[in-house]
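Supplementary Methods. Inverse-folding protocol.

Structures were first reduced to a discrete structure-token string of length 114. This string, shown here, constituted the complete conditioning input.
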């Protein structure tokens, strides 16, 4: 009987494995993902309405979904203050700040390509 265990994908190209990029690309290819990293990273922290002001064409639900995904991925911190009215602020984690730093050359290259 043949072994039906799925084989791990072969992703080795010239000695470099690109498999870890899959998760990063999946996260960053979502609508407004890179913009959110850049916007939040340009400030110490932002409230939801301030983020919305920076992305006027994005829907509230899309921004909210991305923020939830980024929090789950460890890219942003969500800080809720026990005040009336409630206040929530978003900031980049250390990993989020590292991602922003890594995105800067890509953004510079994109600006030159326009």
């Amino acid at each position: 009987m043949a072994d039906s265990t799925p084989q791990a994908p072969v992703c080795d190209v010239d000695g470099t494995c690109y498999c870890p990029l899959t998760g990063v690309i999946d996260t960053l290819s979502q609508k407004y993902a890179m913009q959110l990293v850049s916007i939040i990273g340009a400030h110490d922290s932002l409230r939801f309405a301030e983020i919305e002001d920076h992305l006027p064409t994005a829907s509230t639900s899309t921004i909210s979904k991305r923020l939830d995904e980024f929090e789950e991925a460890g890219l942003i911190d969500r800080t809720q203050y026990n005040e009336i009215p409630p206040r929530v602020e978003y900031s980049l984690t250390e990993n989020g700040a590292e991602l922003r730093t890594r995105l800067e050359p890509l953004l510079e290259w994109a600006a030159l390509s326009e």
